[in-house]
Amino acid sequence: MQHDSNGYWKATLGLLTKILVIWFVVSFGAGIMFADALNGIKLGGYPLGFWFAQQGSIYIFIALIFYYAKKMGDIDRQFDVHED
């Protein structure tokens, strides 16, 4: 158990940075920038770039919410600031 507030915030900001980068790459990158390249692949009969722009980025966002909650719980326990 660590009691370092700077370490806690460093771990928290590191997690947020990783999640925001993934969110940006999926929503803007796959849905807009690389959509033409991804449209050659079909998913459920729809071009993959279109799928990411319409539905895929939402699914990834929801998965990131659950991942964030799990990892923040781990970080809170690591630094002994958990609520349970």
Automatic annotation (TrEMBL):
Domain of life (superkingdom): Bacteria
TM ranges: 12-34, 46-69
Record keyword Amino-acid biosynthesis present: no
Domain Sodium symporter small subunit: 6-82
Annotated Pfam families: DUF4212
UniProt KW keywords: Membrane, Transmembrane, Transmembrane helix
Keyword Membrane: yes
Protein name: DUF4212 domain-containing protein
Organism: Rubrivivax albus
